[in-house]
Structures are given as C-alpha cells and as structure tokens.
Recover the amino acids of this structure.
C-alpha cells in the first residue's frame, strides 16, 4: 500500500490499466452551454459503463499473491461493484460484493455476470459498507474501498492524465462527487501538471456530504440522502478524499434532481449518449450551475452510464419539464360550451402541442359555476412557456396551477 500519493503512482496506474480500460476520447458538446467551449469525457462508455473500473483494477493489480488467494470484498451502489468484479475475474480472484438492496437490478445482474458473489444489504451504501467490513474481518479478504484508498484514487487520477494529454489547453474540469475518489484523483493529478486549471466538483442537492464537510472544515455525516443520482448518494466522505478536496479542488456545488434529469435528457437527445444520474451531474452543473466558465475550455466528466432503463421514462419527463419542453397548466374556466375550444385554439396558435386534457367539475376550491381544465402540452423551451402563460392571462383565463 502506498503511503502518500505521487504523480509517478498515477503514471504507474496509467501503464497498468492500458490493457484493461477503454480509451474514452473527448467529445465536443457545444449545445450544453453557449458562452464557453464544452467537451465531454465519456466514462459512461468505459468498460462496465463507469470510471470505477480504473481504481478497482489498479488496486487489485497491486495485490500480493497471498492477498489474491484470500480474495477481495467490496461494497457499492453498483458501478464500483462491476469494476471490482471485472478486475477480480481478470486476475482469477474470488470477489464478494455487498450492495444496498435498493441498487438497480441492472447493476446487480451486471455485477453477477462477472462472476462475483452478491450480498444484498438492507439500507443504503453506508450500510453495505459496514457489512462488508464485517465480512472482511471474518474471512480475511482484502477490502477494495470504492473511494478512500490511495491506489484507487491513483487509478481514477488517470482520467486527469488523459484529459491533459488530449487537451493540454483545458482550463476547467467539472467532476461528479460522491465519496470523492474520482475528484481526488483528477484534481491531484491535474494540479500537479498545471495548477492553473480549475477543478470543480458537483454533488446532488439531496446528498451534499462533501459540500457540508468542506464548508464546516471537518468531515460531516448526513443523517439521510435522497437523490436519483444513486451512484453518488454517500452519507460521509472519506478521510483521504476530504483532505484531497480541501487541498486541490477549487469549488464544489450542488444540482437538483430536476436539473440532473434535464442533463440526462440533453445528453440523450443531443449527443445520443446515455448517462446515469451520478454521471450527468457535471453536465447539469454546466447547464444550470453558477460556475465561472465563461470563455473557458471546459471538460465535463460524465462518470457513468449504468442507468436503470425502467426508470428512464420518468427521468425524461422530469427533464422535459425542467427544460421547458413540457408543461401542465391547470386553469379555472366557466363551465359552459366552447371554453375548451377557446383555450385549445389559443394554444395551437402559439405553436404548442396538446398531449393530454383533464376536465374536472368536482373541485371544491373554485367557483360553483366554474370547472378546472388541466392541459399538458409539448413546448419548445422556457421562453415559449412564458409566452403561452402570458397569452392565457391576456385572454382572462385564470391559471390556478402549473
């Protein structure tokens, strides 16, 4: 085990990972934001669909023969599990993976397909982590930490090397943050090579453990986490990663689940690219965050693409709403013939497409001679939505909700 991370260790990891990982070249993404040059580092296209294979593979490659015979154990919301399982299979090592029982079925089955033994644990990531430590002691296996291990951090740091090698003039890098292993490796590596490059982290608003820890200048443990970005739903950052973020990261912000949904939709629609919630937070930060990116050549690390496809439809609908592509408007209208025609004709003239209509007479909060008309429509953008709302008000239509 290395005692202190060095740039040489990251280079060593890069060499060790060459036969294992996939090359993920930068992709121009000008539609994400107009006032800067945005590029995507598509780790969602990585082997196993996530950057996690880097750190796990490098750590496992450095085990002694004795450690290999005892096997490895890990805990994960899914992506680290697949990385460990694949790396262990490649080395002929037995792997046991503890996952929170709420992990997407797709991630569980993908991990199982690499030959690992699966142990589902009630609760969230932290519960799986504690149980994995218990099994580690009982069976004398090597624990592959998902983020707070220096060899794992070195493996994730190879992303920073690749970005600078491909784009030496990069000015800002936006990185998803859960436990902090990815941003620790990227920020450390990048700052050693060019301290002028800005490194920004992004957490989900429902799981801001690193944000609160940095603000409080000590590690904070959240009572609960709630976000669609399950891959970064971590209650408490690591000791190493907290120190790395304090020292090398310029700023960490949060984004909402609605903003993440809009980012997933944007990547899907504009770049034909599937990103999971945790992977899309960097793009959400570029789209909606207050990061100072104007005029900067910026790379968004899209860290993973292992999204639960059964959940994708709801995410797309939320993304459509957040980006002004879909809206539902409830309005109070006189309960008499011709009112629906009046409203729908107005909406049609404004270029929106009605997709659903609901007509209610039983609402107790409105005038007894009125009814509630609820219309869902497809729109172009937020500006289009504003024009529709203004037109409805100009025609004396009482909007009671949206």
């Amino acid at each position: 085990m290395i005692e202190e991370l060095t740039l040489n260790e990251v280079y060593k990891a890069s060499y060790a990972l060459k036969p294992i990982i996939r090359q993920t070249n930068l992709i121009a993404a000008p539609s994400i934001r107009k006032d800067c040059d945005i590029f995507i580092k598509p780790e969602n296209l990585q082997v196993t669909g996530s950057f996690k294979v880097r750190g796990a593979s490098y750590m496992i490659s450095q085990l002694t023969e004795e450690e290999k015979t005892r096997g490895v154990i890990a805990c994960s919301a899914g992506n680290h599990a697949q990385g460990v399982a694949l790396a262990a299979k490649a080395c002929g090592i037995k792997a046991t993976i503890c996952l929170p029982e709420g992990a997407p079925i797709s991630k569980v089955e993908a991990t199982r397909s690499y030959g690992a033994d699966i142990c589902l644990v009630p609760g969230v990531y932290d519960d799986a982590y504690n149980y994995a430590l218990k099994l580690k002691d009982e069976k004398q296996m090597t624990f592959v930490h998902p983020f707070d291990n220096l060899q794992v951090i070195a493996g994730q740091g190879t992303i920073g090397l690749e970005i600078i090698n491909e784009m030496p003039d990069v000015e800002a890098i936006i990185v998803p943050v859960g436990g902090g292993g990815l941003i620790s490796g990227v920020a450390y590596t990048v700052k050693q090579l060019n301290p002028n490059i800005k490194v920004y982290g992004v957490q989900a608003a429902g799981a801001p453990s690193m944000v609160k820890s940095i603000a409080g200048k000590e590690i904070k443990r959240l009572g609960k986490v709630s976000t669609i970005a399950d891959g970064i739903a971590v209650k408490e950052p690591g000791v190493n990663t907290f120190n790395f973020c304090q020292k090398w990261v310029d700023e960490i912000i949060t984004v909402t689940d609605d903003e993440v949904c809009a980012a997933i939709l944007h990547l899907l629609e504009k770049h034909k690219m599937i990103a999971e919630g945790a992977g899309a937070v960097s793009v959400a930060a570029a789209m909606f965050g207050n990061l100072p990116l104007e005029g900067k050549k910026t790379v968004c690390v899209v860290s993973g693409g292992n999204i639960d496809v059964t959940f994708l439809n709801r995410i797309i609908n939320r993304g459509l709403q957040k980006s002004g592509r879909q809206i539902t408007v409830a309005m109070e209208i006189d309960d008499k013939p011709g009112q629906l025609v009046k409203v729908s004709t107005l909406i049609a003239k404004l270029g929106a497409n009605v997709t659903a209509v609901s007509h209610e007479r039983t609402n107790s909060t409105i005038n007894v001679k009125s009814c509630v008309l609820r219309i869902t429509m497809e729109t172009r953008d937020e500006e289009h939505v504003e024009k529709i709302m203004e037109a409805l008000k100009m025609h004396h239509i009482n909007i009671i909700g949206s």
